[in-house]
Specification:
Elements: H1 2-28, E1 39-42, H2 50-59, E2 64-68, H3 81-98, E3 99-100, E4 106-112, E5 115-122, E6 131-132, H4 136-140, E7 142-145, E8 148-151, H5 154-164, H6 184-193, H7 204-209, E9 213-216, E10 219-222, H8 224-230, H9 234-237, E11 243-248, E12 256-262, H10 266-279, E13 283-288, E14 291-296, H11 300-313, E15 322-326, E16 330-336, H12 358-366, H13 376-386, E17 393-397, E18 400-406, H14 409-423, H15 433-440, H16 444-456, E19 460-463, E20 470-473
Parallel strand pairs: 1-2, 11-15
Antiparallel strand pairs: 2-5, 3-6, 4-5, 7-8, 9-10, 11-12, 13-14, 15-16, 16-18, 17-18, 19-20
Length: about 475
C-alpha cells in the first residue's frame, strides 16, 4: 500500500512537471514582438501579390519586416525548409520586377525552436513614392496604417514626393502671394517675444530664415507657413485651415450645445479654441488658507498639448478642417492626415516624434508655445497619470489622427444634468419642486432627487417642508 501511494505521488509530480514543461514550451513558441506598422505576420506564403503591396508600404515609410510562419496571435508554426529555400530567390525577383522604383528586399530564413521562418526585410526608401508597376503611381502606391497596408491618397503621394526631396509642405510657395500678404506687425511682435533671442528688424534674410517667404528666380512668394502663421487673410488662401470646436450633449455628436469656428492665424486659432474648451468643462474649488484654488476636471496641460499637436503637426495639404468635439465623457481632437512616420503611434510615450511642418514648429517653439518636439504626448500621458485619471488614447485612421482625452464622468454628468436647474436662479431667488417639474418636464420624484443632489453638494438650501418647501442658492 505504501509503495502504491509512493508510485501515485511520483506520477502526480511527473504529471505536474509535464504540464509545466508544456506551458513553458508553448510560451517559448510565441514570437517575441507583436504586429505593428513595421512588422507583419503570415502563416504561409501568400499566393497573391499581397507581399509586394506590404513591401511597398514599408519602403514608403520607415521600412519593416514580413515574417512568414507565424500566426496572428504570435504563435510560431514555421514553414517547410524546402518551401522557404525555394521562395527566397522567387520573392527577391518578383518584388524587384513588380515595384517602381525597384525595391531590393533582404529575404532570408530564421530558425526558432526548430521552426523555420521566412523573413522579408526592407529598409525605408529614399526615392519615394514606391508603387506597383502594373497599377501605376496613382493606384499602386501603398503605405502602412497600423497593422494594415492601404492604398495612398493623392495628397499623401504628393507628400511622399516632398519627403524624397527633403521638403516640407509648409515651406512650399503659395504662388498667388507675395511678401505684402504677410502682416509685418505680427511678425515684428513675434521677433520681440522670441524665447532667448534678441529683437531684430524684419529683413528679407530674416523672413527666409524662418521659411516665411521663398524666392524662385526673381519673384518672392509667401510660403504656406508664412500665410498660416502671419498672413493677413489665412483662410483666403487655405479656406479649410481652421478648427471647428463643438460641445455636444451626451456621448454622441447628435445635438450640439455650442459651436464656434476658430479662424485667423494659427496663434489666433489656438487662443480661441483653448478658451472655448476651458469654458465648457467643469471646475472644482478648494480653499487653502485665504486663497481659493480652481481645478479643472482634467489637466489643463494635457488640453494645451493636445491642441498644440493638432495645430503644428496636422497635414495642411488636406482640404479639411481640424475638429475638436467635447462630449460628456471625453474630448476628441481630430486632425486631418496620418502621422508622417508610422512608428510614432507605438512610441508616443517615449517622446518619439517626426516633424511634418518644419517652419511652423520652429516658430511655435521660439514663441515659447512648445518646449521640445516630441514632449507633448509625454506631458499628456504624465499629467493624466499624476491625477490617476483614465489613460488618453491616440488613434490613427484612414486620413486622420484622433487624440482622445477622457473626462471625469461624474463631474461631467453633474455639469450636464444639474446646471440647468442652477440656471433657474438667474431669474428667481426661490424656486419650488413644481417649478423644476414644469420647466423640464420631470416627474416629482426625479425633480426632488435632482434638488436633493444640489443640496448635498452645498449649492442650494431648502426652506419649509412638504409641498410648500422652496429652494434658494447658498451664498
Amino acid at each position: 500500500m505504501r509503495q502504491l501511494r509512493h508510485f501515485l505521488a511520483e506520477l502526480t509530480q511527473l504529471s505536474h512537471y509535464c504540464i509545466i514543461e508544456s506551458i513553458h514550451r508553448e510560451a517559448m513558441m510565441k514570437y517575441p514582438q507583436v504586429e505593428s506598422s513595421t512588422l507583419e505576420f503570415k502563416v504561409q506564403l501568400p499566393q497573391n501579390d499581397q507581399i509586394v503591396k506590404t513591401v511597398i508600404g514599408f519602403s514608403n515609410q520607415s521600412g519593416g519586416r514580413l515574417i512568414i510562419g507565424v500566426e496572428d496571435d504570435r504563435t510560431i508554426v514555421g514553414i517547410p525548409e524546402a518551401e522557404a529555400a525555394a521562395a527566397i530567390e522567387y520573392l527577391s525577383h518578383s518584388i524587384y520586377t513588380a515595384s517602381t522604383p525597384a525595391i531590393l528586399p533582404d529575404v532570408y530564413t530564421q530558425t526558432i525552436e526548430g521552426k523555420t521562418l521566412l523573413i522579408v526585410e526592407v529598409a525605408a526608401g529614399a526615392n519615394k513614392p514606391y508603387f506597383r508597376k502594373q497599377e501605376g503611381m496613382e493606384k499602386g502606391t501603398y503605405i502602412r496604417l497600423g497593422r494594415s497596408t492601404v492604398r495612398a491618397t493623392i495628397d499623401l503621394i504628393e507628400e511622399l514626393k516632398w519627403q524624397a526631396h527633403g521638403k516640407s509642405f509648409d515651406c512650399m510657395p503659395v504662388y498667388r502671394t507675395n511678401e505684402e500678404n504677410l502682416d509685418h506687425k505680427k511678425i515684428q511682435d513675434f521677433l520681440k517675444k522670441r524665447k532667448d533671442r534678441d529683437a531684430e528688424k524684419i529683413t528679407k534674410d530674416t523672413l527666409l530664415s524662418y521659411y516665411l517667404i521663398t524666392q524662385e528666380h526673381t519673384h518672392i512668394y509667401a510660403t504656406t507657413a508664412g500665410i498660416l502663421l502671419f498672413g493677413k487673410q489665412p483662410q483666403y488662401f487655405f479656406s479649410e485651415a481652421m478648427i471647428i470646436c463643438s460641445h455636444f450633449k451626451g456621448i454622441e455628436g447628435r445635438e450640439a450645445i455650442a459651436s464656434i469656428d476658430c479662424v485667423g492665424t494659427l496663434f489666433e486659432q489656438f487662443e480661441s479654441a483653448y478658451e472655448f474648451i476651458l469654458s465648457r468643462l467643469s471646475k472644482s474649488f478648494v480653499i487653502r488658507g485665504p486663497q481659493r484654488e480652481e481645478t479643472l476636471e482634467i489637466p489643463t496641460e494635457a488640453i494645451r498639448e493636445a491642441l498644440l499637436n493638432l495645430i503644428v503637426h496636422r497635414n495642411y495639404h488636406y482640404s479639411s478642417p481640424s475638429k475638436i468635439a467635447i462630449y460628456r465623457d471625453r474630448i476628441e481632437f481630430f486632425s486631418p492626415g496620418i502621422f508622417s512616420n508610422p512608428t510614432i503611434v507605438n512610441n508616443l510615450q517615449s517622446g518619439f516624434s517626426y516633424i511634418r511642418n518644419v517652419a511652423i514648429c520652429k516658430v511655435f517653439r521660439e514663441a515659447d508655445y512648445i518646449e521640445k518636439i516630441g514632449s507633448g504626448f509625454i506631458t499628456i500621458f504624465r499629467s493624466y497619470q499624476e491625477r490617476r485619471l483614465k489613460t488618453p488614447s491616440v488613434i490613427e485612421g484612414e486620413g486622420f489622427v484622433k487624440c482622445i482625452l477622457p473626462r471625469v464622468a461624474a463631474q461631467a454628468d453633474e455639469f450636464e444634468e444639474l446646471r440647468p436647474i442652477l440656471d433657474l436662479f438667474e431669474t428667481a431667488t426661490e424656486i419650488t419642486i413644481s417649478d423644476v417639474m414644469d420647466r423640464f418636464g420631470l416627474t416629482r420624484a426625479t425633480a426632488g432627487r435632482k434638488l436633493q443632489d444640489l443640496r448635498k453638494k452645498g449649492l442650494i438650501k431648502k426652506t419649509g417642508k412638504g409641498r410648500g418647501a422652496s429652494y434658494s442658492r447658498k451664498g
